[in-house]
Amino acid sequence: MNNGTHKWLNIKYPQNYIIRNPFQGALIIALFIFGFAILYKPLNTHAARTLSYASTMAFYCFLSGIFIFLSVKILKTVKYLSNSKDWTIFKELLSVFIVLFVLGIAIYLLGFLIEPSAKRWNISTFLNSFKGAFLTGIFPLTFFTAINYRFLFWQSVKYNEENNATTGSENQPHENLIQISSQLKKEELNFYPSQFMYAESDGNYVVFYLNKNNLVKKEIIRNSINNIEQQLSEIPYFLRTHRAFIVNLKKVRNKQGNTLGYHIKLSDSEFKIPVSRKNTEIFNKLLAQYHI
User: Fold this and answer.
1) What SS3 class is residue 8?
2) Fewer beta carbons under 10 A from the terminal one: N or C of the chain?
């Protein structure tokens, strides 16, 4: 595999709706296959001896749906495929293939409940079951994969907009994206240093106030303010001014108070943020160094 293909397969991608929602996904596939079978009667499908054609197809589709539901639930327990936030094109294609593979096995095995077993113990019937599964099941699965392809274009546009907003001009240096992890592991928050205004502790959560495209937005993540302080420690002008607040010193508009403590206001915000007495000295030192 060449480097370009490897890089493309590992691009982040939204998880398929059917994989993300096993019950609804199994129902969608079962209904699609049933409708397809009734309308087109593919691959010489036929009725069972004691059932009508519609009842036979309904039986196949209902039990196939159960197989699909269970396979996706099991799939989501596999560590490599369990995190939807870390989904890639390769994981998407792999999961689609696995679901279709399980569907082929399901169709082959379910046939033993309807047709004489002696007629099914052959490689031709086995391969036909997989052929039918792939030709019908691939449509609903790849439909949701395909509609998510717009995500790649949207991500490119979003990156360019945010990069332009944070740099201000082509002459300014490129900013490295900050990635904040959560105690929940599946949760993540990304932003550029110049977008960060301040963060506030709120019980078991930390509320981030970010300026994106000239709009102040709140982002909430489950974590402690102590852990967030550690994750932001590489940015020298991000200062913990109080036990519950971390501030971007480049955003400070004014301050009020004395050596017993301050209250500061930030650009694009009227909220007053406290600076505790023990932090006034370091606050003044870093403010003089980094404030624009």
Assistant:
1) helix
2) N
Spatial distance between the Cα atoms of 7 and 10, rounded to a whole number of angstroms? 5
Distance CA 95, CA 81 (A): 8
The two tokens of residue 17 are 């709706």
| pLDDT at residue 38 is higher than 60 | yes
CA-CA-CA-CA torsion sign (174, 166, 205, 12): negative
CA–centroid distance for 75 within its chain? 16
Quote the pLDDT of residue 208: 96
pLDDT higher than 90, residue 114 = no
- In CATH, 174-290 is 2.40.50.1020: yes
Number of Cα atoms under 13 Å in the Cβ half of residue 47:
8
- Neighbour-count burial for 222-247, b at 16+ CB within 10 Å, e otherwise: ebebeebbeebeebebbbbbbeebbb
The sign of the dihedral angle between the CA atoms of 229, 232, 235, 241 is: negative
CA nearest neighbour of 254 among 239, 268, 241, 267: 267
Residue count of the chain: 292
Assess contact for 196 and 162: CB atoms under 8 A.
Answer: no
End-to-end CA distance of the chain, in Å? Answer: 49
pTM: 0.48
